[in-house]
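Colleagues,

For the teaching module next term, I've prepared a clean inverse folding example: a structure given as tokens, and then the sequence designed for it. I'd like students to try predicting residues themselves before seeing the answer, so please don't circulate the second half yet.
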């Protein structure tokens, strides 16, 4: 497999960097090809501007429409095109970051903002049916994705009744609203809890789990998100009656039953 490892942590001597090195080494030992995007080391610019699209600043910028025009005509900035090329080559994508204020570091959010432009990761149409291809379909369908997350919170506090919220709920906007939306199959995340107080023994446990999960990257069952165009949603994109009966919220978008 060709794997793209996206890394968002500012410190090369951190727990995150050690896990990244462990993971990349493990993948290569398994015979996979690995490319990396170390966003802080790259000095990645997370801010969308008119320069991304070679857009005349004198004209009003409509980001979605202009990003698609720039994508189709090859006018996207060179750094964005380079990241899109890495994604095209990848069979699987690892997204690694520390959980900061219940979300991604700004530099990683900005990577998605700039790279996942209209026409590339969203706004993709089926030419035969005219349907929008998203939530399990689209240009990135066929690729696998997995989040590697560190969090300061203890594991119990990120469980179903934990004060911090359940892990997959915290990651829903990324796993469902970005990765699955653009077509990628999303594997359950690897989470290292208590990241600011990991002992040597705890690190070895985390590294062992990471190696095991990477070893099953090709075969592990993804999270069972529902396909938008698979018949579960009506014409208003509302889950049909009878599915996840009596339930509401994020959990209804998984086809567990």
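(Answer key — instructors only)
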């Amino acid at each position: 497999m060709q794997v793209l490892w996206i890394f968002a942590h500012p410190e090369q001597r951190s727990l995150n960097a050690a896990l990244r090195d462990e993971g990349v080494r493990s993948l290569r030992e398994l015979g996979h090809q690995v490319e990396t995007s170390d966003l802080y080391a790259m000095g990645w610019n997370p801010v969308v501007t008119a320069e991304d699209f070679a857009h005349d600043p004198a004209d009003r910028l409509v980001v979605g429409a202009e990003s698609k025009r720039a994508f189709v005509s090859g006018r996207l900035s060179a750094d964005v095109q380079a990241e899109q090329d890495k994604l095209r080559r990848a069979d699987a994508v690892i997204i690694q970051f520390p959980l900061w204020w219940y979300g991604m570091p700004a530099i990683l959010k900005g990577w998605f903002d700039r790279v996942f432009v209209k026409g590339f990761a969203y706004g993709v149409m089926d030419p035969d049916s005219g349907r929008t291809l998203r939530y399990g379909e689209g240009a990135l369908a066929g690729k696998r994705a997995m989040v590697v997350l560190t969090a300061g919170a203890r594991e119990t506090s990120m469980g179903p009744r934990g004060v911090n919220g359940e892990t997959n709920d915290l990651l829903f906007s990324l796993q469902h609203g970005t990765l699955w939306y653009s077509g990628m199959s999303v594997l359950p995340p690897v989470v290292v809890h208590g990241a600011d107080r990991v002992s040597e023994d705890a690190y070895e446990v985390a590294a062992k789990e990471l190696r095991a999960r990477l070893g099953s990257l090709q075969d592990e069952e993804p999270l069972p998100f529902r396909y938008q165009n698979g018949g579960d949603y009506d014409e208003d994109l509302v889950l049909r009656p009878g599915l996840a009966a009596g339930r509401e919220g994020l959990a209804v978008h998984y086809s567990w039953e």
